Amino acid sequence: MSKVLIIEDEKNLASFLQLELMHEGYEVEIQYNGRAGLDAALELSDVDIILLDLMLPELNGLEVARRIRQVKDTPIIMMTARDSVIDRVSGLDHGADDYVVKPFAIEEMLARLRSLLRRSSVKQETIEDSDNRISYRDIFVEKDNHIVRRDDQIIVLTKREYELLLSLIENINVVQGREDLLRKVWGYDSDTETNVVDVYIRYLRNKLDVPGEDSYIQTVRGTGYVMRR
Ligand code: CA
Prior knowledge:
Elements: E1 3-7, H1 11-23, E2 27-31, H2 34-43, E3 49-53, H3 61-71, E4 76-80, H4 85-93, E5 98-101, H5 106-123, E6 133-136, E7 139-142, E8 147-150, E9 153-155, H6 159-169, E10 176-177, H7 178-186, H8 195-208, E11 218-220, E12 224-226
Parallel strand pairs: 1-2, 1-3, 3-4, 4-5
Antiparallel strand pairs: 6-7, 7-8, 8-9, 10-12, 11-12
Bound molecules: calcium ion (CA).
Calcium ion is lined by residues 9-10, 53, 55-56.
């Protein structure tokens, strides 16, 4: 059973989330201000995911996320009332893994939650021989200097191609939709055409794939992309 820590000062919303999550079989703990939420996030060792409000008394959500991230990599979903690109991007910059804009449908929150929990359990199984090196088949990514290699051969990628590859390779076996990839790699969604993702996947394949062999990146028709082990 996964445990969810909710940090939210709107008591009605917190209770609603708690009921829905418990109904789905999650264990839930609630804190009503940023300070208490941060303490709980740092002290409790069994929290699997955190739902964090942006506007909180005592310590705002961005600061809470930043301080949690200094110590732990527990997945964080930021809940923001303000639907602006700046808030989303700064939330992600401060260590949140995803965000939902209030008011949100509970189904959307549950889907994001499941996706993040799945991703974080897969991440632990991905081969990382140090924090900075990650590999998939014969592709090696050195994260500290942004170098991608196949054996001794360096594959030169643009910044977006690199981030797209990293996003796929860090989520082995997790199918990611175009919107997910767009949000993670480009940092925004809605107005940008999701087919920019298809274009960059094509660039990546051109650079990575070996003629006559299966592509490193699989297309899941109607859904998105995945690298499978
Ligand atoms: Ca609030």
